[in-house]
Amino acid sequence: MRKPFIAGNWKMNTTAESSVALVNALKAAVKDVTTVDIAVVPPFVYLAAVAKAAAGSNIAVGAQDVYFEGNGAFTGEISCDMLKDVGCKYVIIGHSERRHVIGEKDDLINKKVLAALKAGLKPILCVGELLAEREAGKTAAVVTEQTTRCLAGVAADQLLNVTIAYEPVWAIGTGRNATPDQAQEVHVMIRKLVAKLYSQELADKLRIQYGGSAKPANAAELIGQKDVDGLLVGGASLKADDFAEMIKAAQ
Ligand code: PEP
Asked: Is 187 a residue of the active site?
């Protein structure tokens, strides 16, 4: 049985004050939830304050990115140890905005996944196709290639520290979510791929989140799919009540 995992990616939003207010409001709203893993993913500069506010609660904290080197002359980058130092448990790696706005490629994303695992962080590895790729019937090929390349070198005994987030790029921030059937179809495909790359036993245990315009109105139906083990939520995670409703839908 896979425990549902709901994470809220705040992207480049909130302020010092509103980030702490948001996590405090969420803490109160989900304090009785024990059957769902919950994480919030604030901007780097608010991680320490949010982690302090969330300490001792059922809400874990993650970062939106990380660099693979340990330390040194990498201006503007943040290391795995720095993230751990400020209380992070998770790190999103390969988000579509980093792939398609910033230009990250699978080989860099793979290095970040390996570094995060080595440091004891839990990566949320994002994969997903563009609209043109879906319309050209290339979804399976794109997601297979991204998943295979980004997991290269991840040992079997590390795999379950990874969560895969299937996030079709055309659904992110657009208000147009994948249908539950579309999500389920790709999740099954990813699970079969992981069974081939590792084993059926690990594939059965690996959590695969869906992300892309998930909101209170569609959360229950998406999470109700057999192979959808949770959600990576952008916009709707910025409202404590909406995000709490989605977490409760996963209970
Ligand atoms: C995301 O940022 O990962 C995401 C899924 O965004 P949204 O929920 O806003 O589509």
From this structure: no
